[in-house]
């Protein structure tokens, strides 16, 4: 075994060990605690599984969600990395285990990739091992997994190290390796929109710090443009349809992202020093017992300050990571005038900046033994052990959680009220839609709403509805009138006239009703069909992404074959 293979084997083995230690509450108990967003992500897995069962491999609407009125979360929150868990769910794996599997795999990949990144930057094994522990067991990530259930961000931790390595290559090292940045940003765009935005913020900060260098190195600027262009083309199948939908109507997502909500989600100064896992909700609550703890931990916050004593020979990338990390660490502070930071509304909560602060400060923190010429192996072993023990201390309270599901819990039991009120203070099925970010802002109260055809005054009319998975047949309605169907409207829904053999004859005017349902104008025909038809942008963008992927694969194969 050569040295490179041995190092890879050791990194993989250490990542597996850290994964077992991090996820032990999932491994030793047949129990999945239901935290802030867990139910929503369980709903995503189940929704995708249903879509795959019906041959819908590019699902845009989950029509069975929200009492059958439908929810278009796949158009706004890419589910591509949930395909394997959804397939396993269809093959009989229980829902709780599908969710746990995602966390376990994400933890393993996050650990290995940050170790690989730090090694490639520093060429130091000790720094890589320390980085793996710091990345997995920092307070912010523990809160993400065990308090918030923020599956999108958790999976985003996989790709952030790749983004960081791509930034290092493009701005500090080998400018030809711009494809690394493409992989990282593509993964984030298809995992979690907000983490993608956070990574863009991170990249902008590094560009600012390297602006003079870039202006003197035009090829690096060109490679940044190449990376951005290829990333755009690869992700066009998701990003362009998402932007099209966002422009088509107003959603709840835009109704609560304001400067006021930004300020209410800042971090009070005392919370930077809290060091206990608390299963609360608020970010700036004054009550310690009710407020979830949002910080990155003492080690990442204080150890990089040792560089103050080292004034010479500090690696430029390490120095910039240090400075950017501390800027991002204190930006979410409650003392800052967030009422004027409206351009940050895309990230919803200022404390999300801690996520990219973590990966920046991790660079100098993990390099401390290397930079200061300590006994690297001994220091790494001691520090890693202490940090693992502290991390396990923060995770132990998870074992006391009592509200959750096990391997015998069916998805239906999440909707029938036997475990939780499916609405819990919302006018929609909250266990499936969470904050209903992608529900039209003018939506009715779905509780007790009758699933019937109505006229344009929303009064019930006679008519027969026959539903299949993702379509609806409408019969026995009066001609030349306008009707509203019990389906939430999203751009792409279309009503057609059909003949007695269910063949489509023609499309009829279809649009959004005042209550945000699907409305159409009937003609002289007797039978109609509602179905979701992919828009031109959806079709074109899909072929753009497929063509880009095929082209990149051909280029890669040609290089490997030296053609």
Keywords:
563 residues; alpha+beta; 3 domains; 4-stranded antiparallel β-sheet; 22 helices
Assembly level: single chain
Globally, the shape reads globular
- The average pLDDT score comes to 92
Low-confidence stretches: none
Radius of gyration: 26 Å
| Beta strands, count | 11
**Largest sheet at a glance?**
5 strands, antiparallel
Write the layout of secondary structure elements.
Blueprint: H1 3-22, H2 24-28, E1 32-33, H3 38-53, H4 73-76, H5 83-90, H6 95-122, H7 125-137, H8 139-148, H9 151-172, H10 179-189, H11 193-209, H12 211-215, H13 218-248, H14 252-255, H15 259-264, H16 298-302, H17 316-330, H18 353-366, H19 368-371, H20 376-395, E2 404-405, H21 430-433, E3 454-455, E4 464-467, E5 471-475, E6 482-488, E7 493-498, E8 504-508, E9 510-512, E10 517-521, E11 527-532, H22 536-560
Antiparallel strand pairs: 1-2, 3-6, 4-5, 5-11, 6-10, 7-8, 7-11, 9-10
Helix pairs in contact: 1-6, 1-7, 3-5, 3-6, 5-6, 6-7, 6-9, 7-18, 7-20, 9-10, 9-11, 10-13, 13-22, 17-18
Question: How would you portray this structure in words?
Answer:
With 563 residues, the chain is α+β, with helices and mostly antiparallel strands. The chain has three domains: 3-30 and 94-394, no CATH class; 38-93 and 410-444, no CATH class; 454-532. It has 22 helices and eleven strands. The strands form three sheets. It has a five-stranded antiparallel beta sheet, with no helix packed on it. Strands 3-6-10-9 form a four-stranded antiparallel beta sheet, with no helix packed on it. Strand 9 and strand 10 (517-521) form a beta hairpin. 44% of the residues are buried. The mean pLDDT is 92.
